[in-house]
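Changelog note: in this version the structure field was regenerated for every chain. One regenerated record is shown below for reference.
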Amino acid sequence: MVVFISSALFALSASLDAFLTGAAFGLRRIRIPLRHNLTVSLITLIGTVLSIWLGQLLAPLLPGQTASVAGSLLLILMGAYYLIKFMLHTIKKYHFHVMEDKTSPNVPVQSSSLRSVLALGAALSLNNIGIGITASIAGLALLPSAALTLLFSVLLLALGNRLGQAKIFRHIQRFAEPITGLMLILLGVI
């Protein structure tokens, strides 16, 4: 059960970027069709699997419990990074009165291009490398983590894209980074 919970937390935290990206596309009134969503998610899956595999190769090189402790500590530090980044951005926003995006709702909905989809998949895949390596050093199981990452990536990219087109989402999306940070810290503690 702990393996499933750890894998689910990893997959969810690794896929929150897909949710935000889908929402960003939605805010710009760009629809991500299912075939593009699957392409992005498969590219992300490949990068995630490779990073978990690399972490599993590195883990035996560390003596005793060092691998597990180091991986857990790195996950906690990565989670703290996301929390601190969010806090600094919030302070900067309120201190300097950063302007909000005023995307017009009258812009027609467009479809994403294959070129942007491939770039998006590569970016999301690269983003998961650090998390995948450190989580696998901490003992994350490959198969359930990969399967859940693919599932969450597909679902969250689609959900983000749909919600991004709604006005209320502009107020909610800013909390994704601290949620990711808290999940990574929780994953490091487990």
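Spot check on this record: Residues 66-96 form the longest helix (31 residues). Residues 80 and 181 are 6 Å apart (CA to CA).
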